[in-house]
Amino acid sequence: MLQTHNCVEPDLNLGAGVRCVMLTKKFLEQNRKSPENYLSKIINKPVQLMEQVHGTNISMANKYLSKPLLKTDGIFTQSKNFGLGVKTADCIPMALSSQDGSEIALLHVGWKGLCGGIIEKFITQHEVKKKQYNAWIGPCISSNNYEVGKAVHTGFCQSTPEAEINFESLGKEKWKFDLRSEAARRLKLGNVNVSSSKDCTFEDEELYYSYRNNKSRERMVTLIWRSDGK
Prior knowledge:
Blueprint: E1 2-3, E2 7-9, E3 18-23, H1 25-30, H2 38-43, E4 47-48, E5 58-60, E6 74-77, E7 83-88, E8 92-98, E9 104-109, H3 111-116, H4 118-125, E10 133-137, E11 147-148, H5 150-159, E12 167-171, E13 174-177, H6 179-189, E14 192-196, H7 211-214, E15 220-226
Parallel strand pairs: 4-7, 5-6, 10-14
Antiparallel strand pairs: 1-2, 2-3, 3-15, 6-9, 7-15, 8-9, 8-10, 11-13, 12-13
């Protein structure tokens, strides 16, 4: 993973001509008063955002819309004319690309979307198993700082018993949950090559916002775009 005070990038090539970057807390605070289109200036093309609701809806974007896509936690496109953006704090920003760079996507993956099957839905919806796909799991909360209760544990383990491996019991119906390992496990079952950041948004207060740490309402922004077109 390539990291500076301003941005974090995957340490793998997601796809031919594909770029991906997470903008850090420091960068965003320095640019907080910038015009709304400052994201577009970073990648030299418009950025399609979404109204994230911790669900499993994935939208196909054929053309850029100035407003965020409503009630969706995933965007997929084959267009070179605009990039995609996702806002996260402790949840996973998941960037995906076909190896040839012709298809790109971003998913917002928290425990609700993961348990609800947003990864499986993407893999099925876009026939990923028939293609060569790469994924980057960006900085998110680590298992050491992510304590969950019975409802989360039961929700995962009843629907997918294999998920138990990513829970560590703390007793008294409390568990540590490894969100990124469970996400990686599901991606690999779908024949996706996975690279994962080890950074914890809870622990690194200089680079990242964290709701679990300090109830921050601010979010990092992760962008993905096809750099071979305008």
